[in-house]
Write a structure and sequence with these properties.
By secondary structure, this protein is an all-alpha fold. The chain is 75% helix and 0% strand. It has four helices and no strands.
Length: 103
């Protein structure tokens, strides 16, 4: 019996990601040093907040599942990005949506 081969897409998304990353690096290369530093500082702050939000959502889900309140905030890209960009209002918004979903 032959092993089943998965179909390989020739025109995948990866080439578009590589092209977009090339344009981003070219854009960053063309900036002056002061502006480039500001952009990198913002990106570093954004990714730090992104990681903290993932840890925070995991901790909230662990606590609420331990207490058995039945409250669950999904850890997906939408909820993480919303809370990362909006901060505390984003957390309140996502929590409100989850509470309304239960009612």
């Amino acid at each position: 019996m032959k092993p089943h081969k998965l179909p390989v897409k020739k025109d995948g998304v990866m080439q578009y990601i590589v092209i977009a990353m090339g344009f981003i690096f070219l854009f960053l290369f063309l900036l002056n040093k002061k502006t480039r530093g500001i952009v990198f500082e913002y990106l570093a702050w954004f990714w730090f907040k992104f990681a903290v939000v993932i840890i925070l959502l995991f901790a909230i889900n662990a606590i609420f599942s331990f207490v058995k309140w039945g409250f669950h905030i999904p850890i997906n890209l939408f909820s993480i990005a919303t809370i990362t960009i909006l901060g505390l209002p984003g957390m309140i918004c996502i929590s409100f949506l989850m509470i309304m979903k239960k009612i």
